[in-house]
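Journal club prep — side note

Before the paper discussion, L.F. wants everyone to see what a predicted structure for a comparable chain looks like in token form. Sequence:
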Amino acid sequence: MELYKREQYLKKIRGFYHSDDLIKVITGVRRCGKSSLMQTISDELVMSGVKEENIIYIDLDRRGYRSIKNADQLDELIVKYDNIEGMKYLFIDEVQNVTGFEDVLNGFRSEGGWSIFITGSNSYLLSGELVTKLTGRYLEFEMFPLTFEEYLQMKEFYNIKTVDNMAVELNSYIMEGGFPRTLFIEDQADKQTYVQGVISEIFEKDIKKRVKIRDRESFEAVQKFIINNFGATTSVNGLCESLCKNGMTITKPTVSRYVKVLQDAKILYECSRFDLKSKKSLGGEKKYYLADLSFYFSQNTDNRINYGPTLENMVYIYARAHGYSVSVGKIGKLECDFILRGTDKQYSYVQVAYTIALSKDTEDREYRPLEQIRDNYPKYVATTDFLLQKRNGIHHVNLIDFMKEGKTF
């Protein structure tokens, strides 16, 4: 089957296809499409004239490679291809399954003539030994599940039925999430069962193997609580108190550790708060967004959509997928949903709401924080309204059209 090209990631990597001095590290939550991205890169190399024998693809999760567990075994596997003439392109999926892989990859990188691409589903890949031994010698490319634009494009690519009403498509995307495999599953309940399987796989492969979880029940309680409260301002203290009120005995260090585990497994992303007056990051309360909204809907029988946090989560992932770093802005007593910083070091400010058409108070609530910001960087109010306002040079955009067209803030 021909693969849909995730162009927004491919364009970031293409300039390094033939770089043998830098290891290309593709990270992201399990099942977001990293393997397909590597296969697409491999296909593009062949199309550009690279011989198929010069492409070595090793999926360490697959039968035949699962016995490769240590550095010597991995080295022995790769060295068989050493006599191939010309640049060799080495792709290794789920490389963190091998203990000591860092020394092996660094050895082949040092020899030259090997362009190396690796994937991993958790943050342990970019911690410890890899960072220590390969500092300055690798590039990370973080992947996310499908954004709304990719969701629509992939449906079109594979001739999967869509409806003309984009608001309906948006709701479908919110409920189904952005894991590529779910597009090929017709029944909504089956889609949710698939995502539940992804969550179980993450625990078994990315958490249980790396971290000692002595009390799985308490871990799952923390996971469920923070997934159910995505987009809410949260502190470890508050989270701990809420769990204890519900009869659970758990300490703040344990809660903090579990939240970090969920971040490392890329189920959650932490969004810190930034004070625009003091220009300093604020400790304590933070917001947490889900790598994919289906994590919420697959674990809750109530399928009503709370558009406030849901649209915020969508914008957060959309911005991250487009290369922005993201924080929450505090302006005195007011809060700006997002401060985005692009690769060009430029800022933009974004307020997200389902609608501002209900009343003047609703409109003022979204515009007021932006009007308090005294610099000249772009400011946006993103809603699902089709009648757009003009006010104080602030861009009012229809979020559905904005994301569908792949625009950037």
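L.F.'s comment for the group: The radius of gyration is 22 Å. Keep this in mind when we get to the figures.
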